[in-house]
């Protein structure tokens, strides 16, 4: 049990401190935790997440050996590094994000005898990948299941996938939808000229930029597209733009720290993925008042209501994607109606206050279950924290 008067210690782990949906979720969560917990964040590299931790007053530990790719020797070094970190920080809770850190972080926490071990599945790897890779990812998740105090799924669809695959325990798995700070997104200014389409995502599977480029090639109406992101598939995307004759219509903006500004200068948001949990990029687009065109994967339809806040199409279908985009390109009134409804839905269901309060409640419940705190010890503070504006 934590000594009287000491806050419980929380160690948050994520594979890389880069621009991405999981990193954005962690960055949004941190400011809501510091009043209740002694928080430490660990990841590899610098980037926006490290800056977010520093802004929240959270110590950041840069990891040396953790990588996204699988390498037995490197992963053994990373596991040892994480065990040493757990023994130094002595957390009451370890919360691991992303697939790779979900495995290494939970295993290290168990080896270091951390009482509470939480994993957020931002998207199940065994769903995103097929064949041998998918089966191996599923086997690993099943092996991790007994080591896990609680699994957080970012959508109801993701929870259902995990339960059917026996990757998580129904009694220990909760849904906390991803969120955005909706009020931080200002109103968009209508502009003259071609309609502006934007997509934000890492240039790697399961994002499907090749289908998006094929759809853009099919659109006959005048529009321009901007792609925000970076990743190993950048060269393939660049070559696809040239091969399809889209060089004058599609611009690569790279990784951007001002995504809100890019969205404010756009008219339509599109995400063509093969697999998702609940994309933060879609929630950001809704907060910015943009109509969303997205593929029907994972928890996308828990955010995007087809015909009400955006248009939903099948994955890997460039013809359907092109038709949905063209429908919005030619109809400004429809764009404005769907965009306004999307922002209202984001405020109602996906704002950051609910997101932070749900995590605080989860941590309180797990600390009680592990008998690190008395049942009433944190309840009042959790409720007051969730009620404070700007927390």
Which overall shape is indicated by the principal axes computed on the Cα atoms?
A: globular
Side by side, the strands of the main sheet go 3-2-1-4-5-6-7
| Overall mean confidence score, pLDDT | 91
Q: Tally the helices: what do you get?
A: 16
Strand count: 13
How would you sum up this structure in a few lines?
The chain has 391 residues and is of the alpha/beta class. It contains 16 helices and 13 strands.
Describe the overall structure.
- It contains 16 helices and 13 strands.
- It has helices at residues 21-29, 48-55, 72-89, 99-111, 125-128, 131-144, 156-164, 209-218, 234-243, 259-264, 280-287, 300-303, 318-330, 332-349, 352-369, 379-387, and strands spanning 9-16, 38-44, 60-62, 93-97, 116-121, 150-153, 173-175, 195-200, 223-228, 250-254, 268-271, 292-295, 310-313.
- With 391 residues, the protein is α/β, with parallel strands linked by helices.
- Strands 3-2-1-4-5-6-7 form a seven-stranded parallel β-sheet, with helices on both faces. A six-stranded parallel β-sheet has the order 10-9-8-11-12-13, sandwiched between helices.
């Amino acid at each position: 049990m934590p000594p009287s008067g000491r806050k419980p210690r929380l160690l948050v782990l994520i594979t890389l401190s880069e621009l991405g949906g999981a990193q954005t979720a962690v960055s949004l969560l941190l400011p809501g935790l510091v009043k209740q917990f002694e928080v430490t964040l660990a990841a590899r590299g610098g980037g926006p997440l490290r800056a977010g931790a520093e802004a929240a007053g959270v110590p950041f530990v840069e990891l040396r050996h953790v990588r996204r790719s699988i390498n037995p020797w490197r992963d053994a070094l990373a596991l040892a590094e994480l065990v040493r970190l757990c023994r130094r920080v002595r957390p009451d809770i370890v919360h691991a994000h992303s697939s790779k850190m979900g495995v290494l972080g939970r295993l290290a926490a168990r080896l270091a005898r951390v009482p509470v071990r939480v994993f957020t599945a931002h998207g199940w790897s065994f769903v995103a990948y097929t064949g041998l890779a998918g089966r191996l990812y599923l086997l690993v998740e099943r092996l991790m299941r007994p080591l896990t105090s609680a699994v957080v799924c970012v959508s109801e669809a993701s929870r259902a996938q995990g339960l059917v695959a026996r990757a998580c325990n129904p009694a220990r798995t909760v849904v906390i939808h991803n969120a955005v700070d909706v009020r931080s997104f200002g109103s968009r200014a209508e502009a003259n000229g071609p309609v502006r389409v934007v997509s934000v995502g890492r240039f790697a599977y399961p994002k499907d930029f090749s289908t998006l480029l094929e759809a853009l090639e099919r659109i006959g109406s005048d529009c321009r597209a901007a792609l925000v992101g970076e990743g190993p598939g950048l060269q393939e995307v660049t070559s696809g733009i040239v091969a399809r004759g889209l060089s004058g219509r599609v611009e690569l903006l790279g990784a951007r720290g001002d995504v809100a500004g890019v969205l404010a200068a756009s008219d339509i948001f599109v995400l063509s993925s093969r697999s998702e949990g609940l994309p933060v990029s879609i929630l950001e687009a809704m907060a910015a008042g943009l109509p969303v065109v997205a593929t029907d994967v994972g928890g996308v339809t828990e955010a995007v209501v087809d015909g009400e806040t955006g248009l939903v199409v099948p994955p890997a279908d460039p013809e359907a994607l092109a038709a949905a985009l063209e429908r919005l390109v030619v109809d400004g009134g429809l764009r404005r109606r769907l965009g306004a409804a999307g922002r209202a839905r984001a405020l109602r269901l996906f704002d950051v206050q609910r997101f932070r309060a749900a995590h605080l409640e989860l941590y309180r419940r797990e600390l009680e279950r592990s008998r690190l705190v008395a049942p009433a010890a944190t309840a009042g503070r959790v409720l007051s924290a969730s009620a404070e504006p700007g927390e």
